[in-house]
Amino acid sequence: MDHAITPTGQHDHAHCVSSALAAAEARCTGTAKLTQSRRRVLEIVWESHRPVGAYDILDRMAKDGSPAKPPTVYRALNFLLEQGLVHRLESMNAFIGCGSTSVDGHAAQFLICRDCNMALELDDPTLRKALDQAARNSGFKVDRRVVELSGVCADCQKAA
Amino acid sequence: MDHAITPTGQHDHAHCVSSALAAAEARCTGTAKLTQSRRRVLEIVWESHRPVGAYDILDRMAKDGSPAKPPTVYRALNFLLEQGLVHRLESMNAFIGCGSTSVDGHAAQFLICRDCNMALELDDPTLRKALDQAARNSGFKVDRRVVELSGVCADCQKAA
DNA sequence: TGGCCTTGTGTTATGTTATAACATGGGTCA
DNA sequence: TGACCCATGTTATAACATAACACAAGGCCA
Question: I need a labelling partner for B86 at 20 to 30 A (CA). Which of A132, B25, B45, B72 fits?
Fold first, then answer.
């Protein structure tokens, strides 16, 4: 969300969660409904700015007494992916709330810190143009972009 | 390899394979040896310009009568990754021969065709700079870059 | 209002990808 | 020769993901 410029730093995370859920409610009017279990999965994804695995979500739900099994979680995640409410980080087999409000939110790029495990979502138009240009140079038509840079975030560099 | 500008088109693939193996021999002097099973895995990876899964490699080896089991294949793949001889495509859980001779070969970017399943390796310095600049703007130090663009390659667009 | 269609969920089982942990064997060099 | 390193073999299991079928709730319209 726009206020979460440094997710590692102090920020009102309750606000992240409530705006994410509000955005989800707003998006899921009509036939695509934000049901109880989808909402629950989205809440769990938003419990931190760290990517979370499907089976972590499952464990989390089990602690709440939910009888959810893998298909429940994957169905909810697939729905949330389709709605652009979460991203999948391919290099980690994990999921993270979509923090972009832009239309191109799903062209996002990620900076993943290997120390604190935080994933910072960028939505850099320059970078996106550079990527599309590189593809175009090869006559390639791009549908989907996976851009995940791993390394050490600014906070962890300071800490070290 | 430098001659393989359009991997989908006509090209002397035997030459791809022999140069890849020659490059591997050259790189694996010293303590890091290109053993029989590592060489075999590399050959299988190079049988096409399509990414290949670890268990596909395993099946391929089984057909040759090899008693290889998953750890054998994963060990060989990890060795080849360390030596910069193959890449892992995170978005497909698959591996492909490294076709770059540059020092920065492992900063490569991939264009993956969802029709013909071909993966074209780019090594675009402009793109790499754009990626690093975007990270730097967030004070992020990059170790590893995953850039995988999926879509339709030039040949498949023509065919359609 | 009763049937039926769509959508979402429950449940069981299984498929796919990857690694842990320990044993074995073959060099090399002090 | 025996201690060590490296690679490989072997067994088992962890981690990630989906197929396939059953069922239930709500809309809709003849």
Answer: A132
pTM of the model: 0.93
pLDDT tens-digit series, residues B74-127? 999 999 999 999 999 999 999 999 988 776 667 899 999 999 999 999 999 999
In chain B, which residues have their Cβ closer than 8 Å to the Cβ of A148?
90, 145-146
B119-122/A86-89 β-pairing: unpaired
Lowest mean pLDDT among A1-15, A129-143, B63-77, B132-146: A1-15
Residue B53 DSSP class: -
Q: Which residue of A has its CA nearest to B143?
A: A151
- Whole-number Cα distances in Å, A65 to A54, A56, A75, B23: 17, 14, 19, 56
Given a cut of 70, whether residue A105 has pLDDT beyond it is no
Beta-bridge partners for A110: A121, A148
Contact A140 B113 (CB under 8 A): yes
Q: How far apart are CA B109 and CA A12, in angstroms?
A: 37
| B97 DSSP β-pair partners | B86
Report the gap between the CA of B105 and the closest CA in chain A (Å).
16
Q: What is the CA radius of gyration of chain B?
A: 16
pLDDT over threshold 80, residue A7: no
Question: Would an 8 Å CB–CB cutoff place B122 in contact with chain A?
Answer: yes
- Nearest residue in chain B measured CA to CA from A125: B134
Cβ atoms B150, A146 nearer than 8 A: yes
pLDDT value at position B2? 46
CA distances in angstroms from B35 to A83, B6, B28, B75, B137, listed in the order given: 48, 31, 9, 12, 43
The integer distance in angstroms from the CA atom of A53 to the C1' atom of D23 is: 29
**B interface mutation test: which of A8, A92, A140, A142 has the most B CBs within 10 A?**
A140
- A132, A146, B135 from A142: Cα distances, Å: 7, 11, 22
Q: Identify the CA nearest to B155 among candidates B3, B52, B10.
A: B10
